[in-house]
Design brief:
single chain; four-stranded parallel beta sheet; 4 helices
Length: 122
Amino acid sequence: MSNSQMILVAGPYRSGTGDDPVKLAANVRAMNETALTLFRAGHLPVTGEALALPLLETAGSTRPGDPLYDEIFHPVAEQLLSRCDAVLRVGGPSEGADRMVAQARAEGKRIYLSLSEIPAAV
């Protein structure tokens, strides 16, 4: 039996960026790099950004923090986390990522604070 987990990678997206598109993209890349490591360890990594950002673009969001962003961004991550086994908190300060950890805790899910805590799936 596999011990593969579906793990939400939660880290800063807007925090500390001033909504600079280059910095936002760097934050997404950092989460994606972490997700790739998890995938190569046999897990199914997911990020809220991977689902929310295309929806925001399609909905016509013009900037982080606009009404469409508020409607879609965090609610997508919250629903996604409800279907995950665990959350991996990465990166620096982030109110949104900390909300994901609090939600995971409330739902009784595993919370990891580093990749080294997560065993490879077999």
